[in-house]
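Private note to self, pasted from the team thread so I don't lose it. Backbone tokens:
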């Protein structure tokens, strides 16, 4: 029943050779990787006005130069991340750049910030979209949390079905939102040119305003820069692009930056010219749409697509979080299970974990995550600052052709990003102080996991001088994942018994891994038969159980039983066991109640 439900929700398993078909073209990639950045147009301009209104409505003309400053930062970030795409084409973005150029700790700060930020992206985006829906239908307001959780589950299942399938479905609302805002901006400017909008609604640019200060302008600038969240997602997700990946990712990044610049500047200009004041019950985009079209079809079309993209902005997190987790897992800072592709070739463990944590966050804050937006923004600008600084160090160190212009671009981005980050801490410390607590804790956790993996690897490595302990026991089939002391321990147990035959079974996911392991095995254990079962669907259980059933049928003809021994090592701390032995536990669970098959485990106890 579980298998049937899984197939219904997720679809049939895909072979590893079908990975190329799951790559994204530029049109689909733009939709799912830019939804977070584009959705910020719905609230970025409003954040500027919310700061300026504390002085007076006369200060709204400052939104124009502030918007220009945001566009300069956007240009620096786009050019910088374009350089990152070509310099680090395997993805990883700010984490990889910071780690390679500024050191491991800087990389972990960037990686940890982004992991948390992608969880916040999902929670905040879905909650904001849910608020837009329940505002239109007040009777649904008591069910905010339930509706938000349903949306998270829906997007999670879509992503588990594969990148291409989720992109095919989610692309339409994103492009509809872009179309809706383009229509709004064009019609709004057209009305202004025809003189249908009174110039008395706004204060002329350059009008002196009492009470304005540089600090307040910087605060407004940093608040408006929240519109740039999500810009880094494409550099993290380069492996998801069709070949040539870096070129396609670069073109997609430029397209996203261009759309974001046009939409952001258009909304800021219309808000200024119409003299829109931010109100708690009505968004700035809603006010502009009502002034432009009135309460007709176009107004509701704009509101509907805005609500949709706020929800679907969460999909950027689902695209970038798993790939960032893969890079951290390859460096052993988080569990290796994040490197395993699921049935549909996506990194399903990362997708599921992201969904679970997002739901927990929504429940904890009862769907009211507006207080997390500053934390969400500062979680992006810390990696922005580190990645720009890392690229500066790279150009100074390597000095490639044209490095001076590249250095200027990254220096500009680094300085502005650092200023924005500091302004968040200075002006919204009460909302972002927690980053100073959870980041050190996350880095500590990263190092604990890495230290544990290194300790285990050191004890399991077959080149160590520690002698294997002979153990008494019997085995015929022995699943092996590698050449380690754990496997050696189990083989000694098998050899100590009068088994008819010892068969080591290895299940590789890639053909090159199969050939490499066979060569190593011939050198290490030439007398023990090795059977390799290539698994194109990345399943360990199915090919292993099928092989065991085949052996069992032949064994029953000779009236003897099959014994399967499962190698397993036992860390000193119990929670570490879950980092390593997921496959062993699953194999044991699947084989335990099979008729005429004896299942046992040979433990290898770690000393530290």
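Design output:
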């Amino acid at each position: 029943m579980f298998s049937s439900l899984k197939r219904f929700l997720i679809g049939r398993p895909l072979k590893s050779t079908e990975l190329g078909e799951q790559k994204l073209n530029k049109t689909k990639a733009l939709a799912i990787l830019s939804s977070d950045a584009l959705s910020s147009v719905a609230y970025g301009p409003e954040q500027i006005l919310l700061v300026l209104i504390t002085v007076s409505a006369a200060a709204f003309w400052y939104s124009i130069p502030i918007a220009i400053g945001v566009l300069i930062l956007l240009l620096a970030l786009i050019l910088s991340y374009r350089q990152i795409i070509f310099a680090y084409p395997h993805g990883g973005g700010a984490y990889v750049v910071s780690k390679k150029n500024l050191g491991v700790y800087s990389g972990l700060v960037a990686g940890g910030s982004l992991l948390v930020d992608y969880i916040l992206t999902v929670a905040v985006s879905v909650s904001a979209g849910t608020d837009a829906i329940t505002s239109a239908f007040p009777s649904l307001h008591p069910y905010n949390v339930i509706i938000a959780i349903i949306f998270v589950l829906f997007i999670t299942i879509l992503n588990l079905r594969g990148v291409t399938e989720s992109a095919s479905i989610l692309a339409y609302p994103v492009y509809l939102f872009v179309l809706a805002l383009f229509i709004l901006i064009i019609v709004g400017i057209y009305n202004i040119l025809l003189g249908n909008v009174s110039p008395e609604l706004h204060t002329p640019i350059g009008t002196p305003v009492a009470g304005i200060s540089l600090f307040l302008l910087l605060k407004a600038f940093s608040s408006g820069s929240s519109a740039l969240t999500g810009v880094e997602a494409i550099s993290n997700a380069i492996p998801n692009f069709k070949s040539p990946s870096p070129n396609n990712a670069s073109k997609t990044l430029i397209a996203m930056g261009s759309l974001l610049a046009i939409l952001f500047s258009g909304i800021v200009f219309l808000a200024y010219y119409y003299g829109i004041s931010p109100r708690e019950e009505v968004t700035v985009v809603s006010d502009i749409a009502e002034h432009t079209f009135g309460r007709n079809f176009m107004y509701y079309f704009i509101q509907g697509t805005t609500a949709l993209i706020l929800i679907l902005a969460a999909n950027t997190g689902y695209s970038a979080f798993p790939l960032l987790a893969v890079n951290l897992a390859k460096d052993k800072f988080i569990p290796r299970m994040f490197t395993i592709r699921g049935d549909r070739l996506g990194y399903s463990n990362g997708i599921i974990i992201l969904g679970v944590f997002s739901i927990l966050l929504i429940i904890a804050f009862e769907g009211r995550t507006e207080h997390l937006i500053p934390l969400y923004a500062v979680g992006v600008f810390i990696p922005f600052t580190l990645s720009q600084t890392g690229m500066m160090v790279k150009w100074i160190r390597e000095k490639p052709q044209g490095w001076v212009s590249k250095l200027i671009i990254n220096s500009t981005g680094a300085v502005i990003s650092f200023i924005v980050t500091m302004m968040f801490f200075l002006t919204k410390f009460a909302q972002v102080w927690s980053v100073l607590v959870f980041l050190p804790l996350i880095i500590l956790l990263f190092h604990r996991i890495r230290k544990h993996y290194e300790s285990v690897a050191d004890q399991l490595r077959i080149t160590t001088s520690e002698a294997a302990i002979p153990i008494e026991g019997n085995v015929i089939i022995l699943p092996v994942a590698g050449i380690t002391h754990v496997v050696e321990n189990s083989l000694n147990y098998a050899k100590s018994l009068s088994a008819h035959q010892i068969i080591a079974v290895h299940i590789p996911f890639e053909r090159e891994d199969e050939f490499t392991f066979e060569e190593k095995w011939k050198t290490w254990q030439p007398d023990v038969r090795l059977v390799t079962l290539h698994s194109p669907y990345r399943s360990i259980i199915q090919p292993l159980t099928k092989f065991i059933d085949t052996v069992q049928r032949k064994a029953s003809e000779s009236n003897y039983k099959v014994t399967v021994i499962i190698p397993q090592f036992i860390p000193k701390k119990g929670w570490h066991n879950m980092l390593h032995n997921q496959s062993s536990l699953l194999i044991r669970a699947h084989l335990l109640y099979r008729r005429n098959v004896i299942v046992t485990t040979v433990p290898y106890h770690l000393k530290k």
